[in-house]
Amino acid sequence: MSAEETLILVKPDGVARNLTGEILRRIEAKGYQIADLRMVTPSRELLAEHYAEHEGKPFYEPLLEFMLSGRIVAVRASGNRVIEGFRSLAGTTDPTTAAPGTIRGDLGRDWGLAVQQNLVHGSDSTESAERELALWFA
Ligand code: DAT
Ligand code: MG
């Protein structure tokens, strides 16, 4: 099996709502390996690097504030096509329209806030995965 790896984050809403176990269960049930895992209270600098592509967008500041609002569980997951596979497990960005059966579709709520509190992050490409894993598992 290929050793592809991705960065998965259980965001502060997922940790606060006690959904870490349920999210890890879905990752493992799909057959992906949890290669490393840590509980992180990230700095603004780390989050700014992580979300650099979104700087200047209207949701950027609320996004950073949200990500600073509590603890995050960072996961290094591995498996064949895990980058694409986890994005599929997570569902699309907006929890209201994310497909049932996905993490965001089943468990995510739209709180009507300036930022989508959508429980999880997953790297979107091999380049992003490499960059993000280096940030969160330095
Ligand atoms: P994803 O997390 O699905 O890869 P993204 O990288 O486009 O989505 O955006 C990063 C996060 O920013 C996303 O998880 C939630 C928030 N976000 C994105 N687009 C948004 C929007 N239009 N309104 C509010 N929050 C948004
Ligand atoms: Mg993204």
Task: Walk me through what this model shows.
By secondary structure, the chain is α+β, with helices and mostly antiparallel strands. It has a single domain, classed as 2-Layer Sandwich (Alpha-Beta Plaits). It has seven helices and four strands; from the N terminus they run βααβααβααβα. The protein has helices at residues 12-16, 20-29, 44-50, 60-67, 82-90, 103-107, 126-136; strands at residues 5-10, 33-40, 72-78, 120-122. A four-stranded antiparallel beta sheet has the order 2-3-1-4. The protein starts with a strand and ends with a helix. The relative contact order is 0.26. The protein binds 2'-deoxyadenosine-5'-diphosphate (DAT) and magnesium ion. Residues 3-138 form the Nucleoside diphosphate kinase-like domain. Its EC number is 2.7.4.6. Its cofactor is Mg(2+).
Main attributes?
138 residues; alpha+beta; Alpha-Beta Plaits; binds 2'-deoxyadenosine-5'-diphosphate; binds magnesium ion
Helix-strand layout with pairing:
Blueprint lengths: L4 E6 L1 H5 L3 H10 L3 E8 L3 H7 L9 H8 L4 E7 L3 H9 L12 H5 L12 E3 L3 H11 L2
Antiparallel strand pairs: 1-3, 1-4, 2-3
2'-deoxyadenosine-5'-diphosphate (DAT) binds next to loops.
User: What is the CATH first-level class name?
Assistant: Alpha Beta
What's the CATH topology label?
Answer: Alpha-Beta Plaits
Return the CATH architecture: 2-Layer Sandwich
Number of helices: 7
Ligands, deduplicated: 2'-deoxyadenosine-5'-diphosphate, magnesium ion
